[in-house]
Every structure is written in C-alpha cells, then in structure tokens.
Design a protein that fits this description.
Two copies of one chain form a homodimer. Helix content of chain A is about 35%, strand content about 25%. Chain A is of the alpha+beta class and about 475 residues long. Chain A has three domains: about 270 residues, BirA Bifunctional Protein, domain 2 (2-Layer Sandwich); about 100 residues, Anticodon-binding domain (Rossmann fold); about 70 residues, 2-Layer Sandwich (Translation Initiation Factor IF3). β5 of chain A pairs antiparallel with β5 of chain B.
C-alpha cells in the first residue's frame, strides 16, 4: 500500500481507542451523512439513503406479504388531538416541536410536528370504521418524525428521523396481540436474515414501555462495544386509544364495541446498528442484502489496452446476480482498495492484464480478507455463494460478540461489579417492582433492556431487593 | 342493475352539473382521501397512496436512469438560511409554517417547515463541492412539503403535499440548462406515456416563474372542464444561489468559480390531474400504468360449485402479466361492476359457470365499455394488448378534448369574449410586458400558462397593447 493509500485509513480513529470517535469518523468519511445548520438534524447522503432504500424495499415487501397497506397521514397534529390520550400526551408533549405561526399569522391552536401518529390514525379510524366488516385495517406509513432530543448523534438519536410506523385496528384483543407478535417477528427476521444482526426478543417493563401502550414488545441488538440498542418495537394498545378517541363499531351481535389497536416502528437508527455491529478499524462492513454496491470491480493497470473494456464487460455480466459497480477513477488500485473497504463493500473484484489472459479474476472478501482466484465464467455462481458466506460470517461474529459479553448476576454486588468492569448484557432476576429498576439504574447505571420471551431461572430472588423474583431480565447500558 | 347497485353510482354528481362537486364526490367515494382535523391536510388512503407508489416507482426509475441519486435533507430551515437568497425568501416567506417552540422552550431562531429545499441543498453543496471533480451532483429527494395555502382542495392544493424535488449543481451553465430541459422532457414523457395525459411544454413568464429562478420550464395539462393544470416544473437558477450561499469550486484552470444549479419537482397533485383528465360520471378511470388494480376478476354466481376456485385460478394466472385482484365479497355482481367502475379499474373480468364450461371469460373495458369474450388461454396476450389499447384511447380522448378547447384570439375583444364563453386555452400574441399580463388577468380573468417551445405566428401585435409581439402565449384559467 502506497503512503497516500494509507492516509485514508489512518484517518479513522481505532475503535478500542475511542469508540464514539470511531463512529463519528465513519459516518463522515464513508459519506453517510453531512451535518446541517439545523440542530440535531443530518443530511442523509446518497450512500446512506441507498442503504435505507434497500431496507425499505425488503421491509415494505414483508409488510405487504402480511397484508398491510401503505397510507399517508398529515405531519401536523393539533394540540387538542394530541391531548386526547392522557398517557400518550404525557410521554410525548415534552419532546415535540410546535408550529405556532403560519401564512404570516399566529395560529389559534398550536400544531405539533408528529413525533408518532397514533392520534391521527385514531381520528381517521373513527371516520372509516363502523362495522366489524370494516375490520381489521392493517396500515403502514413511511415518513419522518420529530422528537426534540437534548443530545443527538447521527442515526442513533436525531431530532428528525425517517421511519415506518405500522398502525392496525382489530375486532378482538386476540387478533391485536397476534398482530403485535407477528410484526415483532417480522422485525427479528429482518434483522437476522437481512442485516446479519442477532436480536433478543422480549417485552419492555412498565417503566420502559411506549406512552399509551398496554405492552411494548421489542427486539434488542448488541453493538460491538457491548452497549445495547433498541432495534424495533411493537406495541399492543388494548382498547385504550379507542376509548380515548371514541372509536366504536357494530359487532357481530349488533352491539356497539370498542376495537383493539397496535403500532410498530423501525427507524434509520438501524443504519447506526449496522455500523456499530459490523464495522471495524478499516471502516464500514455492510450486510450484503442492503449494501448499495455488493461487488466493486477494480481494474488493475487500467491504462493497459483492453483492461477497462474487459472490466466493464465483467461488471455488466455480474450485474445479473448482484449490485455491481466499477471504479474507473484515476486513483491507484491501493487507494481504491482502501476506499471501498472503508465504505464497507462486501466483495472486491480485482482484474488485471494477467488475469484477463488467464480468464480469471481475484475476489477479496471484506470480512475475512480472504482472496480467491475465480474463473470469469464461474462468477455468476461464486459471487452469490460468497455474499451468502459473508452474511453468515458477519452473523456468527456478531453472535459471538454478544455471547462473550453476556453475563449473569445473582447478587446486587455481582451486578454492580459487572456493570463497572464489563460492557454487555447482565442477566439477573427481578421482582417486577419499578423501584428496583430505578435502584439498579442509580447504583449500577443499567436499565432493563427487556424481559426476554425465552425465560431462564437463575435463582429465586430479585437481584435488587431479595424478594421473590418474577422474571429474568437483561440489564445493560444502551444507546 | 338492481336498485341498490344504482345508488352507488347516483351518489356522484354529474360533471356537467357541478364539476367541483363531481371531483369532491370522487375523491371521497373512491376512497382516495379522508379529511383530517388539520386545516388543508388530507389523509392519503391506501388506494391513492398505491397510485402514488406506482408513480414513484416509474419516476424514480427514470431519475436513476438519467444518473440521479436520492438523498434526504432536514425538514426544517432556520430563518437565517431561508433569507440568504432575496427573491426566494420573498416568494416563499408569506406561505410558510414556523416552528417557534421545541422541547418545552421558545426557540432562539424560528425554523420554517420546508416549502421547498433549495436553501438546504445549497448549504450542503457548500460543504461538499470544492473542485470541478466534485461536479456535477445530481440529487433528488422524496418528501413532503408545507405551503400555507388560503384555500385548499384535495390533491390540487393542500397545505402539506408529497412530492419529489430534484436539485442539481453543475460546472457550466450549458450543462445546467441541458439538465433543466432533460428533466422537463422526463416529466413530459411520464405524463404522456404513463398517465395518458398530453402536455404542452414551454417556459413561464417572468411573472409566473419560480422565486429565485432565471427561467422556469413547465408542462401544462388541460383538465376535462377546460381549465389548465401546471403539471411539473423545471427551474434553471444560473449561479444566483451559488453567489447568495457563497458556493465556489476550483475550476479546471485553478481559479475559483461559481457553479450553476437547477431544481425540478412533481407532486401528488398529479393524482388530481388523473381524476380530472380521465374521470367521467361513473367515477374514476385510472391509466393502466399506475392503476393499483389493472384487472378485477368478478365471479358471477359465485355460490355455484367450482366458480370461486376457477376465478381464483384465473386471477393467479393473469397475475404474471398484470396487477390483478378478485372481488369475493357477497355483494351482487351488479354492485361490484358499479363499484370497480367507480374506482377506475381499467379492465373487468367476468367469469360465470357457463363461461367456465366453455373455457372463456368476458373482458369489459372501463373506457369504452366494450365487451369481448376471450378464451381463458388467450388472457396472457389479450390483457396486455387491451391495457395498451385503453391507454391509447385515454390519451386520444384527452388530446381531442384539448384540441376542441384550444382557441385563438387576435384582438383583446376576441380574447375577452372567448374567456367569457369558452373554457380552455386561448392562444394569443404577447409583447413580453408584465403590464399586459396583468391587464389580461384583470380584463379577462386569464393568466399566462406558458410560452410554448413550439411557437406559432398568429399576428404581429400584442393582443393587449398592440405593440410588436414577441411570443405566442397560451392563456387560460388554471387550478
């Protein structure tokens, strides 16, 4: 590698030295975001937006397969509408942005820029749901929302972010609960099968659940540094919103009844999860399923007769089995290698004059750096196989990191010591009292990540108060 | 048709009786929109959002084919940023919504909810454009914008609407002008080849151009009632924004230079254009290319053994060549015919027990009501052919309507009389003075729609002042 080729890589702070700075370096240098003069808002540059588009395409397909339809609601919520559900407004009012002037005049009623759209969906349901025949409605919306966060960080916590919010309404509570679980499973499958990120499935405690929900289910992912990231949530509302918004339908027995609702969301913070799960000191590593470029063709000695032409032909050919691009810039091959490594392209295809003579090329994996000499006429089978292998290896490593960083505590002392010396999940039993949750936050700096669906029995008593334990809980520090 | 089947249709006001009410009836009854408690904002229901998604897919493909990349900018613009380009802020400031409070506090600087994003793109360009090697940047964004309109109407003029806004930046003015023209042609092709709506291509007058633009190009469509609709615009900015935002790059000769910019946009008002161009007294008629359902399968006598099964089989089979759906509800066939006519499904496929015996079905065109008996094994060729024929017939009718409603005026009296007695375009010569444009607005109630690229010479003098004429202009009343 020439001196100038190294510079690009050296500009990224090593993760062990300063994980936060490593993250910031990557989002800037891989050209994922640009900062704007609007506090806490980022520009999503073409490379990160293309990742988001690939994620959207997969998720949207999964939503439609499970019977959902897309709609679009207004971005403004009148204050009186936001206030209809008591818990909901309490949870969100402190962090909303208010429009108070429009068209040169002060408004009679403030409009909040949507932090989430339950209230708007409820208003709409009230208009369109009259009979059990109108149920269920299985809706989803792709949009941006605004939450006035105090401290922000690209992708992970921004004042405005892109997301999808599913909102469904059902005849019975059983159907609504089944929907809540179904969509949590869709999220889990998306994270594991497409992003190569293993997730824990579970339920949030009362303290951590969504404002207005009866129950919040979640998937939790663990980042490379051992911190947790809430990756997706699915809420069961019971008929609380229906009562607050007076949504009733004529039931099968001709009596008026209240319907049951759910909502579920996933956001651009998922891009942050990808960076912090798979990235390394050379930069990004993108899961093949969402990488804008899966294979980057790099001509070697491209000034020599026929090299560029053959490289273009190869790129064209493999375009049938993957998202391929070619780097024809006049940078040196070493510079190009470092740049596309940094941008996390899963596979690199090197093609020089001698390769062309022999009818072969070199494929280099971004994850293991393994090189393979592959005949050009085997690329259409070899590339999909390697992309699959890269996905599997990424998932294996992420799972290994999670296992290595998952600990057990049976006493408060153990938990406090683990929270001080290690970074990761701490499994410990809990009595179910919010007081103990708050005590653990204060004494050990950890929050409950979730009550996992797969319960274990570590011991009989709450790690905090010693009273009989009700659940195993994963505790940790979170983004 | 049974009595109850008729009711559905009779509920739509005939267009000749009250065109505005006809339009309102359709948007509600075809379940395109729902009104919300937010003034001037509509809910886009699944049916209209699916039309928008189909339009997005086609347009996004056309943008990517022409080398554009998608990005996402913040939805807020700090007041100081909006004010940097003088003409631009003058044009938009009166119709913006202001966020003045966030996170429970009054903001030090107001944030406007984007009415359009030129200023944000300029701020970003300043960060990322340093050398001619960084040019061009060909960006596009899909998002919603807010303009505080006084009177609103679903799709045509709403306070918030969905759109795409392309923003590009170039080394030379020639390149930027070519881009402005290229994207206008993309819009024209989209309208004519996919929406079956003929358009006029031309340039806006100084009075009608975009705030901050050197020149605004447009496509204009004519609605069924003879009123014009601005269907898409493409703006050339010269280097005005670059100067205002101090964007400079190092040129090929190593000197600092100002780049040249464009922007171009198309919105959900296009759905309004579809309704008002193709609809009739039975309801909507959707262009096959964007219809969420292209063929609706309607089982006749579906209670008879084997009918539903065969109808499902047919639907499955034709799914390979079109977007097909099946109506299995327990409404009568007559009710279903009326409902899917009203919703504008281009083709209806009727299948009853006798059809099944004979291995055939009945295809009914929504545009001409022509019925054809088609062998089931010919559907895969016959359906695409018919969808193509429907598109062509829709385009032909729309063009005929436009031709029938295009008039010529050589004197002011002629123009005033035409504006009073007819509804449509009036072609007339113009001297180029804004004073005459304003006089025509006052005296005849018409505005300049565009200076068409295809000029004609009707006479030598301005229709208003009698001075030498510079251009032929299309005048009319517009939505």
């Amino acid at each position: 590698m020439a001196q100038q080729d190294k510079k690009l890589v050296e500009a990224i702070t090593p993760m062990d030295e300063d994980f936060a700075q490593w993250y910031t370096d990557i989002v800037k240098k891989a050209e994922l975001i640009d900062y704007s003069s609007v506090r806490g808002c980022c520009v999503l540059r073409p490379y990160s937006y293309a990742i988001w588009e690939n994620m959207q395409k997969i998720l949207d397909g999964m939503f439609k397969e499970t019977g959902h339809q897309n709609v679009y609601m207004p971005m403004f919520i009148p204050e009186s509408l936001l206030q209809k559900e008591k818990d909901h407004v309490e949870g969100f009012a402190p962090e909303v942005a208010w429009v108070t002037e429009g068209g040169g005049k002060k408004l009679e009623e403030r409009l909040c820029v949507r932090p989430t759209s339950e209230t708007l969906f409820c208003e709409h349901y009230k208009n369109i749901v009259h009979s059990y025949r109108d149920l269920p409605k299985l809706y989803n919306q792709w949009c941006s929302v605004v939450r006035w966060e105090k401290t922000t960080r690209p992708f992970l916590r921004t004042m405005e972010f892109l997301w999808q919010e599913g909102h469904t309404i059902h005849e019975t509570s059983e159907e609504a609960v089944a929907e809540t679980e179904r969509m949590l499973n869709v999220y889990a499958r998306f994270y594991e099968e497409f992003l190569a990120i293993p997730v824990l499935k579970g339920r949030k405690t009362e303290k951590e659940k969504f404002a207005g929900a009866v129950a919040t289910y979640c998937i939790e992912a663990m980042m490379h540094d051992g911190k947790a990231l809430q990756a997706g949530t699915s809420h069961y509302f019971g008929d609380g919103f229906a009562h607050a918004f007076d949504i009733q339908f004529q039931g099968r027995d001709n009596t008026p009844q209240y319907p049951f609702q759910t909502s579920w969301g996933m956001t651009t913070r998922t891009i942050g999860a990808i960076i912090m799960t798979h990235g390394d000191d050379s930069g990004l590593l993108l899961p093949p399923a969402v990488a804008p470029v899966q294979v980057m063709v790099i001509p070697v000695a491209q000034h020599k007769a026929g090299v560029l032409e053959e490289a273009r032909r190869v790129r064209e050919k493999i375009g049938a089995v993957c998202r391929a691009d070619i780097d024809e810039s006049d940078n040196s091959p070493g510079w190009k290698f470092a740049e596309h490594e940094m941008r996390g392209v899963p596979l690199r295809l090197e093609l020089g004059p001698r390769d062309i003579e022999k009818g072969q090329c070199v494929l280099v994996r971004r994850d293991t750096r393994e090189k393979a000499i592959v005949p050009l006429d085997a690329l259409e089978t070899e590339i999909p196989r390697l992309l699959g292998a890269i996905h599997d290896e990424m998932f294996r490593r992420a799972k290994e990191n999670r296992e290595r960083r998952t600990f057990e505590a049976r006493t408060l002392e153990e938990l406090i010591r683990l929270a001080e010396t290690e970074s990761g999940y701490i499994k410990a039993m809990w009595c179910g009292d919010t007081a103990c949750e708050e005590a653990l936050k204060e004494k050990a700096g950890v929050t409950s990540r979730c009550i996992p669906f797969e319960q274990e029995h570590l011991c009989d008593t709450c790690v905090c108060c010693g009273k009989p334990a009700k659940h195993l809980v994963y505790w940790g520090k979170a983004y």
